[in-house]
Amino acid sequence: MIEKGTYEAIVAHARKDHPDEACGVVIGPEGSDRAERFVPMLNAAMSPTYYQFDDEDWKRLYNEMWDRDEEAVVIYHSHTATEAYPSRTDIDRAQEPNAHYVLVSTRGGAHSQTYDGPVEFRSYRIIGGVVTEEEVRVVGSYEETEGED
Amino acid sequence: MAIELRVPTILRTYTGGAKAVNGDGATLAEFIDNVNGTHAGLKERIVEGEPEELRRFVNVYVNDEDVRFTGGLKTEVKDGDIVVVLPAVAGG
Predict the structure, then answer these.
(1) Is residue B15 part of a domain?
(2) Among A48, A60, A113, B38, which is most buried by a count of CB atoms within 10 Å?
(3) Which residues of B touch A86 (CB under 8 A)?
(4) A24 near A32, Cβ under 8 Å?
């Protein structure tokens, strides 16, 4: 479950960085599973086929999350020429068992330098090399869903 | 006093869920051996190879300094230091 504003911010980031891969996190209180704070990250690889959070930026953010008892609820990145499914590298490198790994594909623009068209937006758990897709539900806000199962 | 290890989520299975554990040592290598003595299995997720080196895609910081620039496993540590193990976030 993800809020509409966050969903749109992730898609906008993927479109903006196309044809390079975009990446970032959405942070929330530890154990809450609420993706509340959207933080786009610099792709230190600046590559159309690879992403890596900038080490210094990631460390700074990690310190901040530690002090605030937060965690990365969502880790997102884009694929700019292939489907929104974790690549072998994505699976090998996944080291956050609590995170929802969101993949956005802008492959509709695989042959252009900009892209404003439709995207695929999918989410997975990646734990110990095992990929499990999960349904993405976009809601206006978490508050409006309170009381639901 | 002791040296604090901040444990990333993925390694908390080795610490009974604890976010941080304490240990001792004069160097990072000694400290990792020491905490591995009380939390077996941690070490092999942080270092690899012979001679031992820090694993790729795992960054280690002593008081916010990336140890790759301060002598790696030979980095000196002391009481009150904070050692952070932070998995890199990367993929294709």
Answers:
(1) yes
(2) A48
(3) 91
(4) no
Q: Is residue B23 a part of any domain in this protein?
A: yes
Say yes or no: B61 contacts chain A, CB-CB below 8 A.
yes
Q: Does B50 touch chain A (CB under 8 A)?
A: no
Distance CA A139, CA A8 (A): 11
The domain tally of chain B equals: 1
Q: Which two tokens stand for residue A65?
A: 């999350």
Tell me, what CATH number does A115's domain have? 3.40.140.10
Range of the structural domain that residue A120 is part of: 2-145
Q: Cβ contact (<8 Å) for A55 and B66?
A: yes
What are the pLDDT digits (tens) for A92-127?
999 999 999 999 999 999 999 999 999 999 999 999
Distances in Å between the Cα of B9 and the Cα atoms of B12, B37, B41 are 5, 20, 14
pTM, 2 dp: 0.95
Q: How far is A26 from A99, CA to CA, in rounded Å? A: 10
Q: Could you tell me if residue B92 is inside a domain?
A: no
Domain that holds residue B79: 3-87
Q: What is the CATH number of the domain that holds B7?
A: 3.10.20.30
> What's residue A91's pLDDT?
97
Query: What does the pLDDT read at residue A124?
Result: 98
Q: How many domains does chain A have?
A: 1
Chain A residue with minimum CA distance to B83? A63
Q: Is the CB of B90 less than 8 angstroms away from the CB of A53?
A: yes
